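Section handout, structural biology tutorial.
Before the tutorial, make sure you can parse a SMILES string by hand: atoms, branches in parentheses, ring closures as digits. In the record below the ligand is pyridoxal-5'-phosphate, and the chain has 464 residues. In the tutorial you will relate the predicted C-alpha cells back to the input. Do not try to memorize them.
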Amino acid sequence: MYPSNFCSDVARFADEFLESLATRPVGARVEPEELRRRFATPLPEAGSAPHAVLTSLVADLRDALTASAGPRYFGFVIGGTLPAALGADWLASAWDQNGGLYAASPAASVVEDVAASWVVELLGLAETTSVGLVTGGQMANFTGLAAARQGVLTRAGWDLERDGLQGAPEVHVVVSAAAHATIFKALKLLGFGLRQIRTVEADAQGRQSAEALAAVLADCDGPTIVCAQAGNVNTGSFDPLAKIIELAHGQDAWVHVDGAFGLWAAVSPALRHLVAGFEQADSWATDAHKWLNVPYDSGLVLVADRAAHRAAMALSGSYLVETPRQRDSQGWGPESSRRARGFALYAVLKSLGRHGVIQLIERSCELARRMAKGLDEAPCFEVLNDVVLNQVLVRFQPPSGEDPDKATRGLLERIQQEGTCWFGPTTQDGRTVLRISVSNWATDPADIDRSVEAILRCAGGERG
Ligand SMILES: *Cc1c(COP(=O)(O)O)cnc(C)c1O
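Predicted structure of the complex:
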C-alpha cells in the first residue's frame, strides 16, 4: 500500500516549488558538475523509502530547476501549466490508466475523444477531422506526414501498407526554408533523404514565398507533399496558407501545416486572419503543451483524410481488443501503451472554455507587443520582427560600437545570470538576436515591465 499521507507530502513539495516561482531566479543556478556530483552515486544495492527518495530529490534539485512554469520565462516557446491541467495530469499518473486502448481504460478513451472533438471545434475544422494525441509537435509532424505519405501514394494507386516504400512512385516533398527542424526529422523517420526535399525560399520574417512555391511545384509531377507553417518559431510569422493550399491542391498535392503554437491563432476572431484558409489543408500539427499550457507531453495531430491517418497508424495483434465505435488511441498515433494524456487536455479546455482560450492567446500577443514596445523605445535596442503573434526578436547595439553579435550574446548572459527573466538567442538574417516568447498563462503586464527593466539594467551595466 501507499504510505499514509503520501500524496499530500508530494503535493507539499509541489506547492513549495510553485510558490517559489514568483521569486526564484528564472534560470538554473548550479553548475552541471556540481549537479552531477549530487546524483552520480553508485547504483544503490538496497532501496530507500519513497518519502526519503523524494525528499532528497527535491533538496538536490533546489537550485537546478528552471522556472519555465513561471511568468517570466520567455525561452523557446514553452508555456506553463494551468492549475486544472496540473491536477488532471497528476491524477492521470495516480490512476495509471493505459491510454492506448478503450479496453484498457474506457475513462482515458472517452475523455480523450471528447477533448479531441473540442479541439476540432475550437479550431473550426471539419467535424470529420481525425485527431491523434501524441507526445509533442515532433510526433504530430511525424504522424501528419505519415498520413500524407499514405494519402498521396494511395491516390497514385500504390498500396503502401502491402508494398512498402521501396519501389513506390517517387513522392515529392516541398518544405519552406524556414521550416522547423522537426519537419526534417519527421521526414527522415519517414524515409525521405535531404536530397529529396525541395526547399522554397522564405522572406526575412520566415514566410514561405508562394511565388517560389509555384515554381518548385511546376517541377513536381506525381505524388507531392507540401509543408507549410503557422507560426515561425523565431518571428511567429505565418506562411500565406490560403495561397499555398490553392497552389498545392491545384496539382493534387497534400498540404501539411506545422502550427505547433501558431495554429491557436485560429481560435481568436482578432487573429484568425493570420491562418486564413488553413482549414482547407490536409493535416495539421500542434501542441497543447506549449501555448495551451498543458504539461508535457501533449501534442496534437489532425488529419482531414481519416482513412489515410488510420492506414498510416493502424496497429493490430491477436490480443489487442479493438472496440468498434470507441476510440483506440493507438490507431491514431505512433505509440501503443502510453499515459492518458487526454485528461489534462480535457481539463484545460473545461477550465478555460472557449473564451478563456481566446483570452490566453490574445493576452500573450498583447504582452508580447508590450515587451516589444518597452525594448524598442529604449536606446540601443531594436525589434527586428513584425510582432504579429507572441514572439519578439530584439537586437542589441551598444554605443561603444562593440560588435553587436558579441554584445548581444554578452547581454544575454548577464540577463540569464541576473535571474528576473530568462530567454535565449537565435539568429535572424545571420545576426544574433534575443528571442522572446510570451506563452505562459500566468504572465501579466507587471512581469513584462519588470523584465524590460531588468533587461535595460543589464544593458546599462554594459554602458556604465
Ligand atoms: C516547438 C515546435 C515544434 C516541435 O514541437 P515539440 O513539442 O517540441 O516536439 C515544431 N514546430 C514548431 C513551429 C514549433 O514551434
